[in-house]
Amino acid sequence: MAKVYVAGHRGMVGGAILRRLEARRADGAPLDLVTRTHAELDLTDQHAVRAFFRDERPDVVILAAARVGGIHANNSFPADFIYENLMIEANVIHQAWAAGVRRLLQLGSSCIYPREAPQPMPEEALLTGPLEPTNEPYAIAKIAGIKLCESYNRQHGVDYRSVMPTNLYGPGDNFHPENSHVLPALIRRFHEAVREGRDEVVIWGSGTPRREFLHVDDMAEASLFVLDLAPEVYAANTRPMQSHINVGTGEDISIAELARLVAEITGFRGAIRHDRTRPDGTMRKLMDVSRLAEMGWRARITLRDGIAETYKWFLDNAEEVRA
Ligand SMILES: NC(=O)C1=CN([C@@H]2O[C@H](COP(=O)(O)OP(=O)(O)OC[C@H]3O[C@@H](n4cnc5c(N)ncnc54)[C@H](OP(=O)(O)O)[C@@H]3O)[C@@H](O)[C@H]2O)C=CC1
Ligand SMILES: C[C@H]1O[C@H](OP(=O)(O)OP(=O)(O)OC[C@H]2O[C@@H](n3cnc4c(=O)[nH]c(N)nc43)[C@H](O)[C@@H]2O)[C@@H](O)[C@@H](O)C1=O
């Protein structure tokens, strides 16, 4: 029986990973799933994290807990984003090692790559140039997470892996009007415009930046795919100090095109206006997903289907939508 701790199980990604593990358990996989809410265990608290690992002694850890937000949240709360994410990663990775955890998977982000990285961005682009200023503190914390895993692997011989997702969306997302990512923000804004009979919706920036969007169920599947790889397969496809793996669809879309797609799905027929006082952020960050594709994993959910399903989830879960 493997004891698996999913950190951040009430978040969008942790929730999707937990649902997938519960399905495996229902199919007969011998899994003991351990979770703690943020209120039960603050992962920035070193003493609490040490006590948790000492008591629970999981075999495997999936680290999907983090301080997460869109361009405005990252720009407004840089101290929170760097401090909380560094603390969570350092506490979880170190105490996991101290408690004898052999395998761990942590989630980073595509913003670890330089602002002017070649497109699509290969794993090797890490630390080759300056980062995008709107999310540099968060990106530095995420890079530290990769380097923590690599360092514990080298010094202590454990098997700690990192996946770098592109922009994610799906059921359980954060729909806050200011602090969320673009896709949930637009779903909510277009929905409210239709409901209130408005003839105009404002979106941030020029509309020309391009983003790649991956549905969270695909992300959960990719996370477990990478976690399940035999150590020799993972090692053969990575390098000791370059051990992260990109996860995405390999396709991107401009923010203006995305807005038109969300308008169509939500039934909005009015005008779309751009607020150019808001930042664009990185102009493009398309993932090179060839490494994961060569190992046998590809995204399955199309953007149109994924947005339609997420919009339905938003309508069905109005009460519990995080905003
Ligand atoms: N969403 C996206 O577009 C992307 C996400 N990622 C990465 O994927 C991972 C998961 O993100 P996502 O699911 O979207 O984020 P969410 O905000 O949906 O979930 C994060 C979870 O972490 C928990 N958490 C935050 N701080 C603490 C803490 N100090 N102690 C304990 N729990 C804590 C949150 O609990 P609570 O809500 O109670 O604070 C929440 O349940 C993160 O590492 C993120 O960086 C990477 C690329 C894109
Ligand atoms: C996942 C990723 O997420 C963040 O980076 P980002 O990709 O820039 O994220 P975003 O989703 O907030 O914006 C994408 C684009 O969309 C435009 N945009 C239009 N209208 C709205 C809008 O209403 N809300 C938001 N948030 N953006 C909007 C916005 O101006 C920008 O051009 C970082 O946290 C980063 O660290 C990170 O990892």
From TrEMBL:
Pfam families: Epimerase. Pathway: Nucleotide-sugar biosynthesis; GDP-L-fucose biosynthesis via de novo pathway; GDP-L-fucose from GDP-alpha-D-mannose: step 2/2. It is an enzyme of class 1 (oxidoreductase). Signal peptide: none annotated. Residues 4-229 form the NAD-dependent epimerase/dehydratase domain. Its EC number is 1.1.1.271. The active site is at residue 138. One of its GO terms (biological process) is 'de novo' GDP-L-fucose biosynthetic process. It catalyses: GDP-beta-L-fucose + NADP(+) = GDP-4-dehydro-alpha-D-rhamnose + NADPH + H(+). NADP(+) binds at residues 8-14, 107-110, 142, 165-168, 181. It comes from the Bacteria. GO terms for molecular function: GDP-L-fucose synthase activity; isomerase activity; NADP+ binding. The record marks 109, 111 as: Important for catalytic activity. CDD domains: GDP_FS_SDR_e. Substrate binds at residues 189, 204, 211, 280. This is GDP-L-fucose synthase. It comes from Rhodovulum marinum.
